[in-house]
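Here is one chain, start to finish.
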Amino acid sequence: MKTVNAIMFYCPNCNQHFQSESLGPGQDFQCTECAFKFKIPADPTIEAVIKPEPAAPQTFTLPPIEESGVATALAVIAGLEFVAAPLAGLAFGSDNAQVGWLIFLSGIISGLILLGFARVIQHTSESSQRLRRIEMLIQRGQEDKNDA
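Its structure:
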């Protein structure tokens, strides 16, 4: 007849009784009754040490690149220039064709200039947002490196 040493312990969550010949003190165990995870105590009279659940991995998301409100406003104003320039040229040019053409061409040219400014402002805004995203990625990499 072979004598086998068994350890006896209780689940600290539901008080279910366990006896094991293969497990030893300090090993991780999951209760079959309530699924609670804990470490088997060294002394069965001592309460089991509660095993903390691993922290959920932090999700890291970069902010989206947003459109510039100023660029949008300039594009709208340029659109109004394109519509208003021919109308104003016709209205003022009915008496004097040269004045009508001058108003028409100046409206079209100013609309094109506003569209150009709108694009420059939009690209500048996007570039600054991309640089901020790169800065955030570098900072995240440094934090991960320091944590390791």
